[in-house]
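Much of our argument rests on the idea that a fold can be written as discrete symbols. In the encoding step, the backbone of a single protein was reduced to a row of integers, each denoting a local shape. We regard such an encoding as a compact summary of how the chain folds. The record that follows shows the chain in one-letter code together with its fold in token form:
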Amino acid sequence: MNTPENSRTPRAKREKPEPTAITQDQVLRAFTDNPTKVLAYRQLSRRLGVTTKDQREEIFAHIKVLRKQGLITLLQNDEYRLADTDAVATALMPSSARKSTKKVDLPVAPPRNRSVQAEFGQDPIVHRRRAAGFDYVDGDDRPERAPSNTVIGTVDLATPNFAFVVPEGTGEADDIRVFTDQLKFALQGDVVRVRMRSSRDGRPVGDVVEVLKRQRPEVVGRIQIQGTLGFVKPDNRKVYFDVFVPPHLLHESRNGDKVLVRITEFPEDSSRQPVGEVIRNFGAAGGNEAEINAIMAEFGLPFEFPEEVQTESEGISEVILEDEIARRRDFRNVTTFTIDPADAKDFDDALSIEKLQNGHWEIGVHIADVTHYVRPGTELEREGKHRATSVYLVDRVIPMLPERLSNGLCSLRPHEDKLTFSAVFELDDDGKLYESWFGKTIIHSDRRFSYEEAQERIESKAGDHAEEINVMNDMAHKICAQRFKQGAITFETQEVKFRLDAAGKPLGVYVKERKDAHKMIEEFMLLANRKVAEFVFNLKKTKPRFTMVYRTHDAPEPERLQTFALFAQKFGYKLKLENPKKISTELNNLSSEVMGKPEQNVLQGLAIRTMSKAIYTTEPLGHFGLAFEHYSHFTSPIRRYPDMMAHRLLEHYLLGGKNVPVDPVEDECKHSSAREKLAANAERASIKFKQVEFMANEIGNTFKGVVSGLTERGMYIEIEENKCEGMVRISDIPGDFYELDKDNYRIVGRNNKRIIQFGDEMMVVVKSANLLDRTIDFELVDDRPDFVKKREAEERKQRGSEPRGYREHSGGGKGGSKGGFKGNRR
């Protein structure tokens, strides 16, 4: 296959022209040229060639003005469409001609390319279902405008007492607080209309007047049977109501079972309870299978593959035809191996190494050619696109693709010929890149290494393939050093792992250690992902660039950085954030300074939360955390759908294909980003359950921990050795009555003035571990003399256990009460 290669001939650099200002007329023209089209902010940016922050802010400002003028209409999220064509036509006329009222016919947008839609997404929205809250796109019989004091937004549950409604649009409006008795039983992600009322504490407050779209009217929880009636208490403590289940809809559920209930009736009266039906019973609450299955149901994860998907996967031939081999570059005689976790079964990447005559090294990053087997229009494709990612719970994997592919056909098992899509690099001993090549290949892995085995080769310099592994490890170190020199962020999250018995019960909890073998693989995967993105971006030098799936990471918002800087200052660390180009350097310096100190995990954790979230998009906006101008996901198509998309696009362009329409690809990027977030939340929930299950066997034992969170209810302590987190209630802290000083991120004793703040080391005793609520309670080790404890107990008995004026806020979970410090809500 003929594929483009990098030319060694240097090209003269051209000066970049100064970016031009975006005018309001340009923004409006984007809509008038496409009168039936729904445009999002990112689409506008692409059409107008936006490249700078100033231009983006100009678009925001123009959108706001055009909305106020009634020329464009907000539909949902950040999506807009043309409003009244007469008004638009008048606005575009010269002022001398605006007295005319003759209607101007605007052009009609042409139909889309259907073949691309079949591969990347659904048909565009032309007509919307006519329902309250949405404008009707076509025709003159539009519904009446909503009252001016109402706002449409998405529900984000905060506590059992209130939620935030995030307004649709570009983010110029503040989130609206709605107390749960005024939510009309809306759940997380539901789209609602809110009537605004007076602000409270400077924050906008409103009441839900209509639920426009219920995202998922299902609740997971524990059922309580009273006589013949059932009541489901939700596992998610942010869900603020129980669900009533009548006798004929219990379906043999017993008291204490963990169930999934679908709500069939939402009452108008907030004093009543929604009515539901048990649609799945997971068994007695507290058991491993019941709780893990309940987590899967809570996050809407699939339990099995549809029969037609399994049948289709089983029907794929494992024979590799000679014609297919002839179309590929053959690496079967080149030293190749995989390095993965010891318990891994899906090997989706391999490395090859060969010394060239000029003394350089040819390093091949070979990725399973999943799209060779998963074709557009198949049931496998539709299921993979819907799932979008594999989900890694503590005791199981919910794969994106059936086992026949993920562990069989596509897994790069040793001593088997395998089809791959490869990025091949010519590098010298210092990791300097000379040439890149991308294309379809066939490999034959010589060896399957676990990370531990590869690390042994690095440390001992002995064993099979030790020379090759050490050459690549030395390169990886130099590539990594260059990456950090260019501004990559060093903060890393710690991964908690469990040792489980055959029944899934945790025998131990530990923090996964990242050694050179892990980092070596990571560096070469980063190199492949970066170079694939750069290759596609540079295929076309003028706009619009070729459509590609990028993994982007915006720079942190200045306000959040300043908040973090103030927090770090409480520990004696000063961050100079005035220069945007120095932000990564300042953060990396802080990371080095806190290394090994009690506050390390707290500050690093909050620094990570300060960062923006990485997403998938067709916008080549760069990756702040990695300091890459262009970055994609290419290396894990067995477990990530965006990687499959990147493979298809890259192959299409290598074969000389024309540019692919961007909108269907962008839609799939949004879907994949949402599914990734959901998977991460499910993974965290399973880890929390296993941590609680492990600590249930440690009741009465003493551990050293650090203060990781503060609320009016108490302080959270994270145990150093296993990262299990629990609460010490503020009323149980011995020696004094303590109050939250939220302005200084600490609690203070009323009488003794003792200060407890983030990062302080504490010795705690495990008091309780509640599997049903997934909570751990600690109490502080009290080293005071017994006579002091006895005297305090008598004083408490005489005047009550809490000081007058102390009020414990309900809210149940971390950060549930007002004034807590556990990171930003969003």
The longest strand covers residues 433-444. Confidence is low (pLDDT under 50) at residues 1-16, 85-146, 801-826.
